[in-house]
Design brief:
With about 200 residues, this protein is mainly beta. The chain has one helix at about 95-100; strands spanning about 15-25, 45, 55-65, 75-90, 125-135, 135-150, 165-170, 180-185. β5 (about 125-135) and β6 form a beta hairpin.
């Protein structure tokens, strides 16, 4: 059915829904709705820079121009790439390992040691971006994503040490990202106070 009216409720602001960005091992199940909190397999990536998250889309196409025309009669999509860009502000074992595409070391009371190896293989993760605007939630679930680029780490007196990364969405049986839009979770009422004896 065609849209026949303007819908201001469909104009959404990209604020985080809680932590807003999560990571899980490859093979973790996709969320099924927008009201259920991420399961135990998910771990938040913590604070991001104020730029938030950027989705990059690149589409390659090839036009078919017949002998009888100077204009294409068909266009074939020959490639599609989807990336997720963000800068992590929390300097912990999980985030540093993601930045360098290494196995995360054990972190104890905020302390860890990580060897950045030249012979390591790329790591594949699930990524969940969770956005809320009023009563609306949009979840972007990437079933397979791997580090494709890491930006420069700037160590200065005037700002937080950021870990900028670009994650490349990988094909998962034809799916690059699953987008779920729905209602926000309904806040649970606080339990009634116990009667005074």
């Amino acid at each position: 059915m065609a849209n026949t009216a303007l819908a201001p409720d469909n104009v959404l602001i990209g604020t985080s829904n809680g932590p807003g960005i999560w990571i899980a091992p490859e093979g973790t199940a996709a969320p099924t709705d927008t009201t259920t909190a991420p399961a135990a397999e998910w771990s938040t990536l913590g604070y991001l820079s104020e730029d938030g998250v950027t989705f990059g889309v690149s589409t390659d196409s090839e036009s078919i121009t017949p002998w009888q025309s100077r204009s294409p009669v068909r266009t074939i999509i020959t490639g599609r790439e989807l990336t997720v860009d963000f800068t992590m502000l929390e300097f912990n074992a999980q985030n540093v390992a993601l930045y360098f595409s290494q196995d995360a070391p054990v972190e104890t009371a905020g302390a860890f040691a990580l060897d950045v190896r030249s012979d390591g293989s790329s790591k594949t993760h699930c990524i969940l971006v969770d956005v809320k605007d009023g009563d609306h939630v949009v979840r972007y679930f990437f079933p397979r994503a791997t580090l494709s680029e890491a930006g420069d780490i700037e160590v200065t007196q005037s700002g937080a040490i950021g870990l900028p990364v670009t994650m490349q969405a990988l094909d998962d049986s034809g799916v690059l990202v699953k987008i779920i839009k729905g209602a926000a979770a309904v806040a649970k009422a606080a339990p009634a106070p116990a009667p005074v004896k």
